[in-house]
Q: What sequence folds into this?
């Protein structure tokens, strides 16, 4: 039986090359994206050798994510691989319709609601995997306080982004603990600093760094290869709760390994989204 992979943010950059490689390997795909036109373009590029379904979703909106979960649950019986790829960095503070800071909402809250909402479909697979895109930027998660993630008193784009990426690792680790009894793995992956448009817009220090050092970065194809390796390598089938960089086991921060922080973040996320599933 062919396996099904769900990927968020598949229409550009790392996500696009990840989707193309998974299709090449024979995975049917669930493409979760905001831009329908780009998703349809990707479907045409993939062709008909595998099945590709498009589900509209704005990860910054809790209502939109919950609606996407309902649509996926109505149309699919199982998910073998879930890749939380989509993410952003915002130069200046923005707040979502739910009153949550945009970076944290998109990078953590959206994936939290999506993943927990699809647990039953992951359980239905023989040995499902969850891959959460993180970043070495989690080392920049200065003055991390769970209660202030949704509405931080001060804003610096790289620090806020770093906190959201730390949240990704904490979530990934806690998810691995909660899903271990069901044979489902959850790992966090830093794809490497990638030569793409991500973080390169605007005039801030982060944008300057991205533009100046762009020639030295990895290509989206190289980054996608590392993600696909963690997601599909047979030797990693039983590996869970780990942090990878460029496809290899790597060192994460002390905060990222903190179980109490992970449980605290989980409870905070449940309260913020009125989600209690596992």
A:
């Amino acid at each position: 039986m062919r396996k099904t992979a769900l990927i968020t943010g598949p229409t550009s950059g790392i996500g696009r090359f990840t989707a193309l490689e998974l299709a090449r390997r024979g995975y049917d795909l669930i493409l979760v994206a905001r831009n329908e036109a780009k998703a349809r373009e990707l479907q045409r590029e993939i062709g008909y050798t595998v099945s590709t379904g498009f589900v509209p979703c704005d990860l910054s909106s809790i209502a939109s994510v919950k609606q996407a979960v309902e649509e996926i649950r109505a149309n699919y019986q199982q998910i073998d691989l879930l890749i939380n790829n989509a993410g952003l960095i915002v130069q200046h503070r923005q707040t979502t319709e739910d009153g949550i800071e945009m970076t944290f909402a998109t990078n953590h809250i959206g994936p939290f609601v999506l993943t927990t909402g699809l647990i039953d479909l992951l359980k239905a697979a023989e040995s499902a995997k969850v891959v959460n895109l993180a970043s070495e930027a989690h080392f920049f998660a200065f003055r991390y306080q769970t209660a202030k993630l949704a509405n931080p008193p001060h804003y610096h784009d790289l620090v806020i982004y770093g906190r959201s990426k730390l949240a990704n690792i904490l979530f990934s680790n806690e998810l691995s603990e909660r899903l271990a009894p069901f044979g489902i793995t959850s790992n966090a992956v830093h794809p490497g600093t990638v030569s793409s448009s991500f973080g390169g817009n605007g005039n801030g220090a982060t944008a300057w760094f991205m533009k100046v050092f762009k020639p030295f970065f990895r290509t989206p194809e190289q980054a996608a290869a590392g993600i696909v390796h963690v997601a599909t390598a047979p030797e990693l089938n039983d590996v869970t709760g780990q942090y990878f960089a460029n496809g290899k086991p790597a060192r994460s921060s002390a905060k990222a390994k903190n179980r109490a922080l992970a449980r605290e973040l989980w409870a905070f996320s449940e309260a913020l989204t009125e989600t209690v599933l596992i």
Notes: Residues 190 and 245 are 5 Å apart (CA to CA). Confidence is low (pLDDT under 50) at residues 196-203, 208-216.
